[in-house]
Specification:
Length: about 150
């Protein structure tokens, strides 16, 4: 699948293990994994950061295979899920930083064009999240108030 605003094809990906069952060498229980996930979320880690910490520090490759639930589902069940989806949050954060750059550098036409592309991706994602009911129907992205969303 191609990229949205660039000519690249993007074929790089991680190779998941064929077997979806729990590894035999893993000694940690599903309840302990859920405790680790909740503890890291309370410290302020995002779901992807939690996955990286569990992989690197505890040897848990796929949380879903070992605990039976994905990280975000565990967080939602415990009321610790972020209010904005992670990909939308990072796009808004990028838009805020580009907006600050454009305010300082008024003549940067390419920066302004890139800002338009970033905001179009934000609007596309918001449309998807409203359709799947992950965002409320009246939620609206506003570039003037975006800094408050990611602060």
């Amino acid at each position: 699948m191609g990229r949205m605003h660039t000519p690249g094809k993007g074929i790089a990906a991680s190779a998941l293990p064929y077997r979806r069952s729990r590894p035999s060498w893993l000694k940690i229980e599903a309840s302990e994994i859920k405790e680790h996930v909740c503890k890291l979320a309370k410290k302020g880690f995002t779901p992807s950061q939690i996955g990286v910490v569990l992989r690197d520090s505890h040897g848990i490759g796929q949380v879903r295979n070992t605990s039976g639930n994905k990280i975000l589902r565990i967080l939602k069940a415990n009321g610790l899920a972020p209010e904005l989806p992670e990909d939308l949050y990072h796009l808004i954060k990028k838009a805020v930083s580009v907006h600050k750059h454009i305010e300082r550098n008024r003549k940067d036409k390419d920066g302004k064009f890139r800002m338009i592309l970033i905001e179009s991706r934000i609007h596309r994602l918001v449309r998807y999240y409203k359709r799947t009911k992950q965002l409320p129907a009246n939620w609206k992205y506003d570039s003037r108030n975006a800094a408050a969303l990611v602060a």
